[in-house]
Amino acid sequence: MNFRALLLGIAVAALLPSDRVAAQPKAEDGFQSLFDGKTLAGWNVMNKAKFTAEDEVIKLRGGSGWLRSEEEYSDFVLRLEVRWMKPKQDSGIFIRASKEGKNWPDKRYEVQCENSARVAHLFGAKSVRDAKKAEQLLKAPKEWNSFEIGTRCEVKLNNELVCTSDDLKMAKGFIGLQGEGGELEFRNIRIKKIDSKK
């Protein structure tokens, strides 16, 4: 490689940082995006939550409340990426949630989204969780982690199954991101609706 080609390669790498390139997910069959990467269109900020959209991520910077999807969902597969900006930052991923509630929805199921031994615990229903495996799968603060929440509720953390439940009795509700004083970022939020009649 000559010197000019080397300089060109360095310039291209500088213009396309790896984190920004990685923010663009590959097309997935049947999935639709719930975040346009620029605004909170399609979402509602609830109870003074501190969520903003910037640089292809939804940023949470403390406060109490939640970010609610405009649409309700019943059976689905939800995928998203999360990173915690500091150790032990608390949040949650709500599914089948109601609108009503002082800070968070009164009726909901919650997948614990804290970078601690509690990660991927399911609140609101009986479940089986491999706590040791879940904690071992956590990446360091500021590194991206993937969550997948399946319809029965199967929870995968970084592509590994860590929690399951057959106890979800509420049939339908909103998807939400919880604000509970933590400092987190979310991206690549997408959903695949499942036809429960099949």
Which features would summarize this protein structure in a list?
15 strands; Jelly Rolls; 3 helices; 41% strand; globular; mainly beta; six-stranded antiparallel sheet; 198 residues
Q: What would you note in describing this structure?
A:
This protein has 198 residues and is mainly β. It has a single domain (27-193), classed as Exo-inulinase, domain 1 (Jelly Rolls). The termini are far apart. Residues 5-22 have low confidence and may be disordered. Strands 1, 3, 4, 6, 10, 11, 12, 13 and 15 form a 9-stranded antiparallel sheet that branches. The radius of gyration is 18 Å and the shape is globular. It has helices at 3-15, 18-22, 131-137, and strands spanning 32-33, 43-46, 51-54, 57-61, 64-73, 76-84, 92-97, 109-112, 122-123, 128-129, 145-149, 154-157, 160-164, 173-180, 183-193.
Q: Mind describing the biggest β-sheet?
A: 9 strands, antiparallel
- Please state the average pLDDT score: 88
What's the end-to-end separation, in Å? 57 Å
N-to-C SSE series?
Answer: HHEEEEEEEEEEHEEEEE
Q: Estimate what percentage of residues fall within beta strands.
A: 35-45%
CATH topology: Jelly Rolls
| Rg value | 18 Å
Pick out the low-confidence regions: 5-22
Give the tally of structural domains.
1
Which structural class should the secondary elements be placed in?
Answer: mainly beta
Could you tell me the number of beta strands? 15
CATH architecture: Sandwich
CATH H level, superfamily name:
Exo-inulinase, domain 1
- How much helix is in the residues? 10-25%
Query: Which overall shape is indicated by the principal axes computed on the Cα atoms?
Result: globular
How many individual helices?
Answer: 3
CATH class: Mainly Beta
